[in-house]
Amino acid sequence: xxxxxxxxALLCPAVMADDLELNPDWEYVADxxxxxxxSGQASVETVEGREAVRLTGTVSLENNGGFVQIAFDLAGxxxxxxxxxxxxxxxxxxxxxxxxxxxxxxxxxxPWQSFRSEFVAPEVWTTIGVPxxxxxxxxTEAAFxxxxxxxxxxxxxxxxxxxxxxxxxxxxxR
Length: 174
Known about the structure:
Elements: H1 2-11, E1 20-21, E2 27-30, E3 39-47, E4 50-59, E5 67-73, E6 87-94, E7 98-105, E8 114-120, E9 126-131, E10 136-138, E11 149-157, E12 161-173
Antiparallel strand pairs: 1-12, 2-5, 3-4, 4-12, 5-11, 6-9, 6-12, 7-8, 7-11, 8-10
């Protein structure tokens, strides 16, 4: 799935007039909610001249762990209809590592279920666009339906690593 984000990063303009810019209320979550020992934080700061939320931390696989994340609910946790859009665009700067972009819909009933796509966070500010067609179902038989979105998350997950990713913008694009 990385290939989609990399190719689209070259094609996706920063902001188009008919994009829907989101104003996320980011929250930090780590595997400690299930007994893991990963550690990190989310902070709002100026990164390379842009105000951004920055996720930093250490992902550990010890004790069945393995993630740190920032996430936000859409529409106050209610269903958000994004079916008029093509995908999600992120303005990101990172440490060259792979991260997951995850979407949740109201069809998912378990916390481990999601629709996910992987991307690399470049070491310079870059707009990465991920089309809805690039998201794969994880541990669910549900089909992805952009008219039923509830939550967006960015995760450092699945391998021991140092997370360092800043996000200055999130939007749905056409």
